[in-house]
Write a structure and sequence with these properties.
Blueprint (H helix, E strand, L loop, with lengths): L5 E3 L14 E4 L2 E7 L14 H18 L7 E8 L5 H12 L5 E6 L9 E8 L2
Parallel strand pairs: 4-5
Antiparallel strand pairs: 1-2, 2-3, 3-6, 4-6
Length: 129
Amino acid sequence: MTSHLTQQNIAALASPGGHYSHVVTANNMSFVSGLLPLDKQGNSLANKPVEIQITQVLENLNACLLGINAKKTDIAQVKVYVTDINEWPIVNELYAKWIGEHRPARLVAGVKELHFGSKIEIEAIIIKE
């Protein structure tokens, strides 16, 4: 039986370190797994300032968009997890610069910890026409 889901790993990103795909698509809807501040070689940037971490996470999200032939304006929702809600203003500022005028639905959650000691993780839902 063939699946109605397309599982895709993005060549521009490090291979998943667990049992998951970077992106899963059903019809015109794509779900991007949680993206951490990992470079293309899979090295964690968790020891870097939050500005560097959010920049890397957004670069990784952009790579996912390019990998599925989508645009930022196709993003319907993002979920942002941060370990220090006091750093939210800088995260929000850099996110706003990256996304531009588009305003998808968004969840921001302060969490106790993230994998590798990262300060931020983002997942997204993308809907293409």
